[in-house]
Each structure stands twice: as C-alpha cells, then as structure tokens.
Amino acid sequence: MKEPVFREAVVRLENTIRRLQMNDYSGHDWWHTWRVRNLATYIASKENADLLVVELAALLHDVADWKFNPDERAGFEQVKGLLVVNKLEKYTRPVITCIRHLSFKGAGVPDQPETLEARCVQDADRLDAIGAIGIARTFAFGGYHHRPMFDPETKPIMHTDFEQYKNTVSPTINHFHEKLLLLRDRLHTPTARRIAENRHQCLEEFLQRFMNEWNGSDFLGMGE
Ligand code: ADP
Ligand code: NI
C-alpha cells in the first residue's frame, strides 16, 4: 500500500476508535488512547521499533482490554475486525502480539511483552498511569467504580494472581501502592525510564502531601 493511502487507513481507524471511546469516564477515554499513541510512537522512534505496528497497537490497546470485553478472545476479534475493515489486516499478528500481555495483572505477576514493539506500547500505557495525569485517572476510575478515596483502616494488598487483582475493591489511595508506585521499576525501555523519573516523583510528592493534610501535619504546630 502506498504511504498516503496507508495514512488514510490509520486516520479512519483512529476516527472509529475515537467514537468507540468517546463516552468513557473510567480513565480509559479517547484522550488516554491519544496520549498513549503519542508516547508510544515517541518511544518507538528512539528505540528503533516498527513505528506503524506500535501506532496501531497503541490505538487499539484498550479496544481489546479485558475490562471492556466478555473475554480476551472477544477483544482480539474486535481488534482483528477493525484492522480488516480498514485494510490493515496484514498487521493483525504483530499488533495482537503487542496487546496480548499489555495489562498490569498484579504486583506479584511478572510482565511478559514478547517484542520490542510490545515493550514500547506497554511502557507508554504505564507512563500515562503515573504523573499528574496518572493521579487524575486513578481518582476518575475510583469515583466511577464507587470506591472510597482513602480508608486508613484498609491496607494495600500485593496481589499475587490476576483473579485477586481483578476483584479488588480497595480504596483509590491503595492503588498507588498496589500498582502505580511499582511501574517505574517495571518499564522496559531506557526512553520510558527517563520520562518516568519525573512522573514517579510527582506520585511520591502527591502521596506525601495527601497524608500530611490527612494527618494534619501541615497545620498542627503552626502556631498563631
Ligand atoms: P492497564 O493499563 O495495565 O491495563 P488498567 O487499565 O487496569 O491498567 O488501569 C489503568 C488505570 O486505571 C490505572 O493506572 C488507574 O489510573 C486506573 N485504575 C485501574 N484499577 C484501579 C483501581 N483499582 N483503583 C483506582 N484506579 C484504578
Ligand atoms: Ni490503556
């Protein structure tokens, strides 16, 4: 396929995904996909990965997610259908390889991205889970799922299997300990690791401030 024709196919796919994800309020909306695409293609360009595969996988990564499908197979079928309809079917296999093991499945469950392209997309998705935007998404998700913001009596759990992680109903602050603070050290590419430093610090500072305000240590002892 010639380059301009191919670009048109990506734009058509992008428009379909944008429509599909328009009404999401759980932190997995179109703009999350848009940011992941930007991050993933940046990382891919620095890491010499296949840009097209990475872009397609980034655009499609949440279409296949277990949270939005009755099962994993249904998600992959939808991804395949979207690629076929847009005449991009020859990318089905490398794209599915990228998104198959993308999701975080618990603190004690190892990640296993199989290709350089898969590592670029997973890193990009995880960078959007930390930093200021990561914090905003986490509270959006918590509110959407009716979780308390914080409960000092409920301690974080380091999940050792996906079933346990999937069924958790912990308060939102616990998610920082159960996932977000662990992400920096689970990134694969040097490019993503560099971007993560600042975003990780933002999480640490936010948690510190949150606890200081909760415990009153930012005003107790201030004097008159
Ligand atoms: P992945 O992108 O690895 O599949 P998820 O889609 O489960 O991860 O999570 C993406 C984002 O959704 C998280 O980074 C977080 O912002 C939010 N999220 C997911 N699970 C929870 C939770 N239990 N509590 C609060 N936020 C959550
Ligand atoms: Ni995502």
Description:
- With 224 residues, this protein is mostly helical.
- It has a single domain (3-213), classed as Hypothetical protein af1432 (Orthogonal Bundle), CATH 1.10.3210.
- It has 10 helices and no strands.
- It has helices spanning 3-20, 30-47, 51-60, 72-85, 92-100, 116-127, 131-144, 162-166, 172-183, 190-215.
- It is elongated.
- The protein starts with a helix and ends in a 9-residue tail after the last helix.
- Adenosine-5'-diphosphate binds next to α7 and α9.
Quick overview of this protein structure:
Helix content is 62%, strand content 0%.
List keywords for this structure.
single chain, 224 residues, mainly alpha, Hypothetical protein af1432, binds adenosine-5'-diphosphate, binds nickel (II) ion
Topology:
Layout: H1 3-20, H2 30-47, H3 51-60, H4 72-85, H5 92-100, H6 116-127, H7 131-144, H8 162-166, H9 172-183, H10 190-215
Helix pairs in contact: 2-3, 2-6, 3-5, 3-6, 5-6, 6-10, 7-10, 9-10
The structure holds adenosine-5'-diphosphate and nickel (II) ion.
Residues 27, 65, 103-104, 125, 129, 134, 137-138, 141-142, 168, 172, 175 line the site of adenosine-5'-diphosphate.
What is the overall silhouette?
Answer: elongated
What is the succession of H and E elements?
HHHHHHHHHH
Overall radius of gyration: 19 Å
Percent in strands: under 5%
**Number of alpha- plus pi-helical segments:** 10
Q: Please tally the β strands and state the result.
A: 0
> How many strands, what sense, and barrel or not for the largest sheet?
none
- Ligand identities: adenosine-5'-diphosphate, nickel (II) ion
CATH topology: Hypothetical protein af1432
| Average pLDDT reading | 91
**Gap between N and C termini, in Å?**
73 Å
The second-level CATH architecture is Orthogonal Bundle
Task: Indicate the low-confidence ranges by residue numbers.
Answer: none
CATH class: Mainly Alpha
Number of domains: 1
* SSE class: mainly alpha
Helix content: 55-70%
